[in-house]
Amino acid sequence: MLKLLSIFCLLSSCCHGYSSCRSCVVPVVCCPVEQLPTITEASPSSLIAFPFDESFPMTCEAKGNPKPEFWWTKNGEEFDPYQDPRLIKEKNSGTFVIPNTGNLTEYQGTYRCYASNKLGTAITEEVEFVVPHVPKFPKEKIDPIEVEEGQPVILECNPPKGIPPLQIYWMTIGLQHIEQDDRVSIGLNGDLFFSNALEKDSHRDYCCFAAFPKIRTIVQKNAMSVIVKSKNSNNDSSSGPGHANSIMEREPSLLMPSGVKSETQLVKGDELLLECIAEGFPTPMIEWLKIDHRLPDRVTIENHGKLLSIDQVDEDDKGKYMCKATNIHGMAVHYFDVSVEEPPQWVSEPESQLSMIGSDVLINCSATGTPQPTIQWMVNGKPIEEVPASNRKEFDDKIVLHKANSTDSAVYQCEASNRHGTLLANANIMIMNLPPMILTEEGLEYSAVEGKVIVMHCKVFSSPPSAVTWNKEDSTGSLEGLRFTVHQNGSLEIYNVEKEDMGQYTCYTKNTEGTSAITALLDVKDPTKIFQAPEDLQVLIGTTAQLSCLAVYDNSFSGDFEIVWEKDDMEIALNHTENSGYFIEDGILQIVNVSHRDQGMYKCVASTPMDQDTASALLMVLDIPHAPENLLLSEHKGRSVKLKWIPGEDHNSSTTEFIIEYEESQWEPGTWRELQRVPGNHGSAVLKLYGHVNYRFRVSGVNTVGRGRPSEPTERYKTPPAAPDKNPENIKIEGHLPHEMDINWEPLSPIEHNGPGLEYKVSYKRQHVEEDWQEHLVKRHSFVVKDTPTFVPYEIRIQARNHHGWGPEPKVVTGYSGEDFPSAAPDDVAVEVMNNSLVKVSWMRVHKDKLHGHLGGYRISWWRLRSLLDSKKTHGDKHTLTFPGDRNHAMVPGLTPFSEYSLIIMTFNRRGNGPGSHAVNFKTPEGVPERTPVFRVTDVQKHTVTLTWAPPLEANGVLTGYLLEYQLINNTEEVGVLQTVDISNPDTTMWVLQNLEAISRYKFYLRPCTRVGCGPRVSKESTTTPEARKSHRLRSFNTRQSSAMTDTPITALLNIRSSVCDNFSYVAYMNNRKHITSMSIFNSSKTFHVIEGLELGTVYTVRLMTNNWVDNTSIFEYVIRTRAKVSLASIHGGISTQGWFIGLMCVAALLTLMVLIACFVNRNKGGKYSVKEKEDLHPDLESQGIHDDTFCEYSDNDEKPLKGSQHSLSGQIKAEGSGDSLVDYGDEDIQFNEDGSFIGEYAGRKEKKGSMEVKGTTNQSTA
Fold first, then answer.
1. Which domain, by its residues, includes 218?
2. Range 347-363 average pLDDT
3. Where would you find the membrane-spanning parts of this chain (predicted)?
């Protein structure tokens, strides 16, 4: 039946004409099948014409094929809306509209709509159109009501009829409400009841007001006058003694309702209202009961006990109720018999049917209600008695059509009614034979989401009903399984759709009249799934919160996918303004400057046109606690008071404690100080206070976020004065002078005085010597005891007092009088060498009698006398270490190896240091050298590299040589084998590595060595050239000093070939130890340059600077070291004092003088050639085969350095020309920094650097 009903609805909505198919929910193929009319929309059963509405539609819509025609009846007679031009009609519709022209009375009545075509007629329920009148009280003259005091009074209202609800008010002309109580009340009928009148009830302006909210109207009845005559006419006062007794007392009687019993009928769902109003004196009290039952829990007693109400009554509320009015004289009762009835309800509503010709048709219609509804049948809107049929039989609740034929097709109406209402149902009965007609469109494409449900339609119209089966193109037979269901309407429902369900499906239909089929395509989409869901978050207020939401979805929805955020089920609107705190990008929600209003549940909705996924997270905003409220002081007990408060909101972080602060008005007004703290689960605290203080308090909460704002302060509370509660603390006993003792203490704070007149009593005595205390009263917080022995123990105590008494008994503390300097030094000082930089020092402790004070500890001072490489002793910088406490040994670190030191020890106390011990000398053993200060690659060729360096500044022993290592490091992950060269000559400062690969990068390592081992290494990298290139190399660089036994400065002579001399303008040399750089102008007209004033035993870097000097560019660089002064005495143990040695030295001096004269003569004849001869005897292994004129030469003077012009330059020298000509000379850069030292590498191309120790000749070796 349900299947046929849905088919009727579909056909009637689709088959008005062939062009209306697109209006169907499911695309269908239109058909020419005729259909009975069906009502689709109608007005409610009651329509009230409220005066403020503009119009009132009488709705009637229907469908059918052929298209239905409409007509109306009013009050049972035919009514044609088209005959009244005032009515508004709608085309192709049965609906007409009654405009509100102000006079609607003529339209009042009961309407019914009929929709008919040639097959039958459908009808609507009757619609009552009510036109309310403006309610008015009748104009009447109301006589005054006179009653004796104590008698009942009823003022009748009799409100006019109108649209409910009705509201009654009793007021005076001045709009003052009549007060209601046990004695005075308003009844349900609107009357005003007085159980007993009193003289104060006399008024001339009692008015009844009736309000009708639906029509926004209030009407007033004429004023009524009540005159209450007093029983005591001689006494004008109603309150005098015995007045109450003068009123006639009586037992209760009921004013409303009358009689002893009444019946009340209600419709289920209505509100039950039972009222009892009684008169009598004293005023009766009302009590309600339900006979044989307890009053329902839903009962409400109102109007001072006079009204019982039950909302939404049902069958359980029926029964007998009783009200009982009682006073001291008796009682009165009334019984209510309450019955609950129901309007008609369908038990079996008639259904539309499609049946075959010749079949039996059964139409059921039954209803229930109280009283039982009566059933009336109609055919096409006419009583069934007026439409006879031979094959039809009627019963009370059914109709049977025997062997029905097409002429029995009609609209059958069933109407069920009782006194509470009427129900009407239409049933379309179609009798025909028809082969299957599939109304669903062919080739529909369906899309489903994997894991969801899809319904594919196959709407069929046929008679008799046809069987529907579904097949899939790649399967045999019909679809089977729990996931597939074919419904009665032909639709195929697939549960938990899978990817394998994609494909083409066929719907087959068949009955006795024929068959039909359609196909449909199913596409299965990937589901939308959130894979990174937002997580619950707790953030601090004012910070930024970030909630992430990332999802995957089907690729076909790339343009239609979106992520929407909701807060508390409301979508977050983005206005992209500065004031907006929400920012969404790529599914990530950022909440900037989080506030309390941002707290809540956030939902991420990732959706496509077909599905969606959601994920939620709770955002909690953490903040400091809100200020406590309602601070209250109680339990005042002098210097104790109880403080109570109500904690403020903790903002999602539990309050851990409360801080109570106070402010007093005498010492620090306006300053709040902490008084005490209490746990966070407390709401009160007992405060212990100081005396003579005017307090007020405030409280603030603390949670994990921080401390909250303080509360509002309490009122002032002043404590009475009292003696001090405590004595001074932190007593300090010191002696700045040997015969004094200074006593200091921390004074009581002003609030701790507890009263005026605070002072301190200082008591002291020598410990174990004196019995009596010496006492002094002071107001300050210090005291000095004079003429004390040096450093002896005392007992001291300090007690506070004020005008109200002494403080508690003070504690005794022990201290010492003033200290003096220690008078003895440690004895038996011994030094044990642990290693080359650490020694252990031990000594004998100083006796305590010599300390003259508290032992502070010991101090060790030491200084370096000399290096063991140097015989001359000097007094180096003194170093001191302090070792606190009582001890007899210590470790002294950080010593220089291979050195001689001197050391002393002293003790100290608070007064100062004692005398030092006898100096102890010791020597440190040899160590490894420091790193080489200069390491350079000075010449790079195709297969050779020249390395130069300077000796370490501190050899820390006897230098034995160098360890040179190198390896290939081309731009690969692997490096070459590490090659080692052991250089055993400690004077070597240059080395040539041969047989290297061309165009290859090498790394070089150099470590200086002593007998102990090798020091830290330095490294350089360089790349060999593709071919050999010319090299500018210095031939020799010699220094000479007049005597190795003196401190005479060394002078160096630089000899340069004229072929390259024009390339230089400046000579720069730097003291590598002091980092002091000097420069002088080179005279290019000469072939030599003199460098004077070099220090002994010092390393220098010498550079020859070009004419066009830019950025410290140089071509030649050498590192030299001058010879240290040698003392023969240190070697031979004082041989210079022997006579034979002095004579030998005189002979040597004479021979030297003769040699110098000969050299001088030889030089005047052309000494330059002698240098050339020396070069021939000692050829430069690196320069063989290169013409001598391409080099600058160095030679030393035989006797004295040649005096030449030398000019000192200060500051930077600016280049006079371009430095472009230097580009081809080098690839490294060395620069001067602000103090003149060399930093960095060369800028521009230059000769690779070499280093050498200057000892008259250049020592160089070749590897």
1. 145-232+245-340
2. 92
3. 1140-1161
